[in-house]
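Project channel, design review

CF: Before we commit to the Penaeus vannamei constructs, I'd like one complete example in the thread so the newer folks can see what an input/output pair looks like. Taking Transmembrane protein 184C.
RD: sounds good, go ahead.
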Amino acid sequence: MCGERCHIVCSQWRLWIRPLVFFLYGVIILGFVPYLVYTLVIQGIDTFLIAWLIGGIFVFMAIPITIWEIVQHLINYTKPKLQKHIIRILWMVPVYALNAWLVLGFPKWAPYLDAARECYEAYVIYNFMMFLLNFLDDEMDLDATMETKPQTEHFFPLCCLKPWRMGREFIHRCKHGILQYTVFHLMTTFVAFVCGQAGVYEEGKLSPTNFVAMYCLVLFYKAMRRELDPMSPLAKFLCIKAVVFFSFFQGVAIMFLMKAQFMHNLFGIVDDSPESEAKERKTASILQNFLICIEMFIAAVAHHYAFSYKPYMDEEYETGNCCHTFLLIWDISDVRSDIREHVYVVSEGMKRRLTSRGGGWPGGATAVGGSNGGDEHTRLIAPHAHSGSQGTHRYMSTSDSEHDIVIEQGEGSDPEDMKAI
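CF: and here is what came back for Transmembrane protein 184C:
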């Protein structure tokens, strides 16, 4: 009898595994962590070592949540054009968490680890913009739909600027704002790394490029809010913004508090000597990375719900090999083609303005598309029933590997078999 019950319980593991995991996480956060802190303080362990150990607990609770979500997307890889960007975004939590935890334990590695993290940060914002464009481009003729929209004005305090003309120009300006952030952030990260090695770089400086990138995302969302509603863009946008910008402003705030000597008594900094300044920078770095370790656990839970794999589940669709799919995620030739295409568009736009041959951007719209109702799962799994346009997809970024798959399937497969490509 006991053997049969155990077999039934094991066979229905999907029903109890999630509550069990949440219960264990709750026990660790509410019980084990406070007990560990109390024990270490009583034993007189160094405060920085305590921060490293506690940060590690939260990091290694956050990473399994993200890995689980990534694996589920790979198993249910029914919409490669969208899910490849989602998986790239989900990797942000492990990258941030491991970076913060390793910098806590090995401060000498900080320049190298922070440079890698900032490069991936720019990559994530680019992928989120492409995720939005690919979703809309699969549903409608995006250029024509945008042209039918009422004029989108700039936000305060930029409301005095001339609005971007709706249509292809508006889309490309938003996309350009993201691409310039991706390219220039890589360049400035390299410069900051070199200057840091030379000892002439100071952390906590503001950079205008990340504000431009996020501004373009917000403006694009404002223009296409109704069309994006079925895929719950606000939750996804807030997850990206919280991780990238909250951690950035948090670091700036900590540096400000240190410079203003509001936290000197708390961390035992007593004078303005060079040794105290070095301790001030070290303490600010430790506090920032410790908080990121804890926040990445919260971010992992938020990403689990915001970028869920469930809308992409389709029992009738046969997905390919997960290992092959995983390798496709890291093919960044689509980024290269997007940058090359946009450089061409910008150069053509400049030529038009210089020669006064009109204000339009190259490649205008040719047909009007629409957007139908339905939730995220319905519109993603059944695009043939909810698609507003069967024309060419202008904004779908395709990597070289994916292009080869499309060609191979197009030569010997049914059109129905290609619906997820």
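RD: helpful, thanks. DSSP finds 18 helices and no strands in the chain.
CF: Residues 363-373, 382-391, 403-421 have pLDDT under 50 and may be disordered.
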